[in-house]
């Protein structure tokens, strides 16, 4: 009797998307594009004559019938992988790792340090998205989310790994043009603001007892990394986070004209879903980033006692 079999590539895409709860994560696991996963699932839906997912804007949810179908086929894929391993060919294991981090942190701290992780773990395929959305507002599921904290979210474990403070910084070339010896000298300078962090300068000036100070000019940019780059380029004085400007200070691209005051800041923390915390690839990354964070925190405290 002839077997009735669905298209196997489409079935594989459905199983991965259903198990992971995300077309994006399924694409990463299968090493194909998001569009390829969507196309394969549409092909399977046409073959079955029924929808497998309910689509809600950027989210997808299994239908009731598809949940039953997934529960039946997932053990078959696992059995196939085991049988292949018994035959003598190791079954491929997913080594992908997806992260979501704030854009300024990713640009100025995470990405410059990733070479050491890649060297130690070349088999782990990293996928990094940047966003400043609150964790609970993210549309896609990630293995690790990096945000400020410490905060508590149901279903997530949280671990702080990097601490920082914020203080005024500028380029050495700017100081050659306009002197800046004490906070009162900021009257002659341009203050660089970030629209998403409007309280940085007012709070610092208040701590410096210069709350009524009127600068020569202000420039507001919509991303923190743009504000810091403007400071490097000599446009004005910015409020710099010590962890993210350490390399610029060491290289002489930025200087801190005052010893204080320094504004306290929230720590950087990793947030991992409870069910994923023990996965080896996630544990390896957490161990690495906590080591890097501890080293950076010690170095920052040494530079700014």
Automatic annotation (TrEMBL):
Q: Which Gene3D superfamilies match?
A: Periplasmic binding protein-like II, Winged helix-like DNA-binding domain superfamily/Winged helix DNA-binding domain
Return the Pfam families for the record. Answer: HTH_1 (PF00126), LysR_substrate (PF03466)
One of the record's GO molecular function terms: sequence-specific DNA binding
Q: Name one GO biological process term.
A: DNA-templated transcription
Residues folding into a coiled coil are none
Transmembrane portions of the chain: none
Residue ranges of every copy of the HTH lysR-type domain listed in the record: 6-63
Q: Does the keyword Kinase apply?
A: no
Q: Keywords, A to Z?
A: DNA-binding, Transcription, Transcription regulation
Family from the record: Belongs to the LysR transcriptional regulatory family.
Question: What name does this protein carry?
Answer: Transcriptional regulator GcvA
Q: Species name for this entry? A: Paraburkholderia acidisoli
Please name the gene that encodes this protein: gcvA
